[in-house]
Write a structure and sequence with these properties.
Elements lengths: L2 H20 L3 E5 L5 H19 L3 E5 L3 H9 L5 E3 L2 H11 L2 E7 L5 E2 L1 E6 L13 E6 L5 H13 L8 E6 L2 H9 L5 E5 L6 H4 L7 E6 L3 E2 L2 E4 L5 H12 L1 H4 L1 H6 L4 E4 L6 H11 L4
Parallel strand pairs: 1-2, 1-3, 7-8, 7-9
Antiparallel strand pairs: 3-12, 4-12, 4-13, 5-11, 6-9, 6-10
Helix pairs in contact: 2-8, 5-11
Length: 282
């Protein structure tokens, strides 16, 4: 084989490899806030929009459960990832993930944790929760429905296991529905829970009330892998933050009113809330 032919083949191989790398799939992971089928339907339009605008495939990955999702996040499987505020801070510290945008839902990019009771429960102040059972939505990594509500209880001097009993439902809607059905005395959930159709379809919200809310904090984040080139991260951010003008149907499918540009500093209040509950420095 001549040197010239070898050179041509080498150049061709390099070109092929470079081309393949350029169109390698970007993996977009979304946490199981809603059932798998609904989550996929909600975020497929966003994945398709990003694919078209970036000129490379964006593969939507929806884990069947939280354990599987979090395993992927911890291993750095996702190039783009949507999760809660606590998840972001953990992955930022451990894997260098960088926030680019946060959700705006119901017209606000802020949210708060809350404790919810039935109006006929006789619970009218936070100290009335002594001796009661609180059903938190999700697990101990749930920011709006466990960590933030627990910060309220700690501030009031109430101690889990001593002053109240902790139980968990699968998700925040389940916690509120459980309290409505008198399966527990109070629920931990985000303060926008009564705007969620899956809740209002199953209960009479007029019989429920928010007993107390935490301080408000930044909404659910979207982050990119720390190794992603800055120009690509900014491009994704630009695509997402202009959807209200360029393609509002993507926002409607995702059940958000907008995506808002965000930075790590926006999560400083979240860091304080988490530290008050878990003691972690994030």
């Amino acid at each position: 084989m001549s040197n010239k032919l070898v050179s041509v083949l080498a150049i061709g191989l390099i070109t092929l490899l470079t081309s393949s790398a350029a169109v390698a799939d970007l993996t977009m992971g979304v946490f199981p806030r809603r059932p798998v089928a609904k989550t996929y339907k909600s975020f497929k339009p966003l994945a398709e929009k990003l694919s078209k605008a970036l000129g490379e495939p964006v593969k939507l990955v929806v884990a069947k459960n939280f354990k599987e999702f979090w395993k992927g996040a911890q291993s750095g499987k996702y190039d783009i990832v949507h999760y809660n505020q606590y998840h972001y801070l953990l992955s930022h510290k451990a894997k260098g993930y960088k926030v680019i945008v946060v959700n705006e839902e119901f017209g606000s990019d802020r949210i708060a944790g809350s404790i919810i009771v039935r109006k006929d429960s006789g619970i009218n102040a936070i100290n009335d929760l002594k001796g009661k059972t609180i059903l938190f939505g999700g697990g101990k990594k749930a920011m709006g429905s466990y960590i933030a509500p627990t910060s309220i209880l700690i501030k009031a001097g109430l101690v889990a296991g001593k002053d109240y009993t902790v139980k968990f439902s699968k998700n925040p809607p389940g916690a509120v529905i459980g309290v409505y059905n008198k399966a527990a005395d109070a629920a931990g959930a985000g303060n926008v829970i009564f705007k969620v159709k899956s809740v209002t379809k199953k209960i009479d919200a007029s019989k429920m009330k928010i007993l107390v809310e935490s301080d408000s904090f930044i909404h659910l984040p979207w982050a990119v892998k720390g190794t992603m080139p800055s120009a690509k991260a900014k491009k994704i951010q630009q695509i997402m933050t202009t959807l209200k003008t360029t393609d509002p149907s993507v926002l409607k499918a995702a059940k958000v009113t907008n995506f808002i540009k965000a930075s790590d500093a926006d999560f400083d209040k979240v860091r304080k809330i988490i530290k008050s509950v878990t003691g972690e420095e994030l």
